[in-house]
Amino acid sequence: MSDNSGSQQSGSIFHLAIPVDDLAAAEAFYGDLFGCDRGRRSDRWIDFNFFGHQLVTHLAPDECGRASTGPVDGKNVPVKHFGVVLDPKDWEALAARLQAAGTEFIIEPGIRFKGEPGEQGTFFLLDPAGNALEFKCLQQIDQLFAA
After folding, report:
1. Is the pLDDT of residue 1 over 60?
2. What domains sit in the chain, N to C, each tagged with a CATH number?
């Protein structure tokens, strides 16, 4: 019997495939800047271990471009984006590492929904192909799906 509750099963790994317009730039961004281990590859795609999940960058220049934005908590958040929820210490360390590397953020590291259910640290950036990424943390992880 399958569980359709939407909750993650213990040991579940998410798979996401995204378009890129330059595999070398994608490898430098995900592999070098983020330190993601590389997996299988071809001349058209590269697998990465993205914080324990499978991220595949596919060479598809016609599919690349900057996502439109929508207002969230007073910021223009990219509508199409992906990322991970980190432990607060890991989130702070990643933000500091990216800032030290001179990374350009589209939304700087900060706290959203302050004092409300789901209060979270978050920041957004673009990969070289224009894919938007969000990294967030919550002091109370049980607030991730708070209404």
Report:
1. no
2. 10-62 (3.10.180.10), 65-147 (3.10.180.10)
Give dist(CA 100, CA 33) in Å, integer.
11
Question: Strands 45-50 and 53-59, how do they pair?
Answer: antiparallel
Q: Using the predicted structure, report yes or no on whether residue 144 has a pLDDT greater than 70.
A: yes
Mean pLDDT on 45-70:
94
CA atoms lying within 13 Å on the CB side of residue 82: 15
| pLDDT of the residue at 6 | 46
Q: What is the pLDDT of residues 118-130, one digit of tens each?
A: 889 999 999 999 9
Contact between 102 and 95 (Cβ < 8 Å): no
Helices (H), the chain: 23-26, 88-100
